[in-house]
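Many groups now describe folds with learned vocabularies. In that spirit, our science desk offers one protein's residues alongside their backbone shape tokens.
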Amino acid sequence: MTDYIGLAGGPSSRANLKKIEVVHADGSRVRTPFGRGSPSLRQGDTIVVSEVTLRWWQDYVTVVTALTSVIISWIVITR
């Protein structure tokens, strides 16, 4: 399973590797943590990696940081 996640681009920085779920084509689900053995994968299975929920202020800080960088760049360029 780790190979398939790697082939898909690997886990993102917000991936919750403790909550990985394999959804079989018949609709049944198997939950497994990353790296702890892999459930048998079959054709048509989907691997779902949950995201870690961020606190509202973490997203806010990301946006404010980006805006600050843009404003500072604009000030430097226009001087």
Summary: The helical segments are 2-7, 56-78. The first strand starts at residue 15 and ends at 23.
